[in-house]
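Schema walk-through. Below, the input block comes first and the output block second. Nothing else is stored per chain. Lengths vary across the set, and this one has 169 residues.
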Amino acid sequence: MSVETKFTKTEVKFLYRAFKSECPNGIIDEDTFKEVYEKIFPMGDSSKYAQIVFKAIDSEKTGGITFGDFMHFLSIISKGSEREKILWSFHFYDVNKDGMISKDEWMKVSESIYELMTSDTSEQQKHRDFVDDIFDKMDTNKDGLVSVQEFVSYCQQNSVVHNSLLVLP
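--- output ---
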């Protein structure tokens, strides 16, 4: 098993062949990534969510996801420890990558998830209120920002949020 990815050599070879068949040049650009999400989630609007996921995976900010980027992402979300998954989720919500999650970032990502799952807007305000309440509970020092420590603590203590953060983005 590869230490860097937590996948066996056989799994890496299989994933590499699949990656290359979809992306012969070895790089997934943002538009292609969005197209994949549109196929997976045809009922909702996946464009905002796909953009956020793409930017989280494209850690080098190159505008493309390499096989190495993809494997690192898959390794964490599918075979990572609970803490690694929670930390990746924090990184995902920290859209501007300043090491803190603002309420605006929290809402932006949460709304993109909501739009991904449904085109029904009738429950949107109820969803916003729910998401707002979660942010307020995570922000234990009430400074308007959620630190890594606050995020990890909340995720480990709240079973519903904890379980939802550990699923494939």
